[in-house]
Amino acid sequence: MPDSEEPWRPRRIAAFLGLGLLLYAGLFLWSGRVLETHGDRNPFFRIAHAPERSDWIVLGASHALPLGFANVPETLRTATGRSTLTLAVAGGGPAVTRTVAERYFADRGAAGVLLVIDAFAFADPRWNAARLGDADLLPKIPADLRTLAVLARAVPRGLPLPVFLAQAAGAARINDRTRFRPDRWEAEARFDTAPRPSDAADAARIAYLYPGPPSEAAIAQGLADTEAVIRLARRHGARVALVFPPLPDRLRARLPVIPGLDARLADLAARLDVPLLDHGALIPEPRFYFDSDHLNRAGVALWLERGLAALLGSTG
After folding, report:
1. CA angle 210–191–247, rounded 5-degree value
2. Exposed, middle or buried, 247 (CB in 10 Å: 0-12/13-18/19+)?
3. Could you say which of 3.40.50.2300, 1.20.1250.20, 3.40.50.1110, 1.10.150.120 is the CATH number of the domain covering 41-128+184-313?
4. Domain residue spans in the chain?
C-alpha cells in the first residue's frame, strides 16, 4: 500500500497464489474422480462411457427415460436386435437435446436417432438452454475438452455464460453437495408400480409442464434446434425418427394445445423427409404408467409390442 512501511513481497504473493491454484487443481481432479464412481444418468457422463457406436441413441425429455431404466436396454436388444443408448434429460427441451447430440456425435457414431417429441418442451424457455445449468445436471457433467467446446458453441444460442464458466472452471462439480449420491432420477424407483389415477396429480403435472402461455420465441428456437439435430445426425450417417410418446387418455385430453406446433413439426418432418410418428394414443390405460404420464415396465413392454419394436428393428 502507498502509505505502508511494509515491504512489497512479490515472491510471497506468487507463492500464495500458486498454493491456491494447486489446491484448486487438486479439488478439480478429486471432484472428477468422485463423479467417475457415482455418475450414471447424466447424458454427458453416459456418452463418455459409451461404446464408439450404437445402433440407436434415444433423445428427448423424461418420457424417453424409461427406455433406459433397469434392464430395458437388454429387453430392447432382444426384441429388436439393435443396441440403444438413452441420452434423455428430465425436463430437457430441444436446446438440451441439441447440445447432447452435438456432444455425442463429436466422437461417437450411431445408425439411428430416435427423437422423442414433447410439446411442453417447445413452449417455455425454462426447459431449454438454462436447463443445463440446473443443480441436478451441471455438476454431473464430466470435464473434457469436447464437452467444453460443445457448451461454448451453445452460448450464442442462449446458454447462460455463467453456466459455461462453471463447467469450464469445474466450480459446479467442486461445489456439488450431492456428489456421493447415486446420479439417478428418483422416479426410477417407481418403475414397477401402477398407482391409482388422481385428478389432482394430473392437474399438478400439467401446471408444472405448462407454467404460462407458450412463448413464440421458444417455439421457433425449439424447431430450429430440432432441425439442427436432424441435420447433424444425417451428416454423421444416422437416420432419424421423430415420435410422440404414449400418454394416458385421461391426461392427454387435458393437455393445453399449442397453436400451430403440430403443423409446424409435420412441415419440418416433411421438408427433411423424416418420419413423424404419433404414438400418443397407443397406450390409453393409466395402469401402464407409474405416475400421471411416464410408462412403467409393463407400459414399455406394451409400447414395444404396439410399434416401438418395429421402428427400432427396421433397417430403412
Report:
1. 40
2. buried
3. 3.40.50.1110
4. 41-128+184-313
Across the chain, the runs of DSSP E, i.e. the strands, are 53-59, 84-86, 109-116, 239-244, 276-278
Using an 8 Å Cβ cutoff, are 128 and 218 in contact? yes
Total-model pTM = 0.92
What is the per-residue pLDDT across 124-172, written as a single tens digit (0 to 9) for each?
999 998 899 999 999 999 999 999 999 999 999 999 999 999 999 999 9
Distance from C-alpha of 13 to C-alpha of 18, rounded to nearest angstrom = 8
φ, ψ for residue 149, nearest 5 deg: -65, -40
How far is 300 from 240, CA to CA, in rounded Å?
A: 21
Whole-angstrom distance, CA of residue 240 vs CA of residue 97: 13
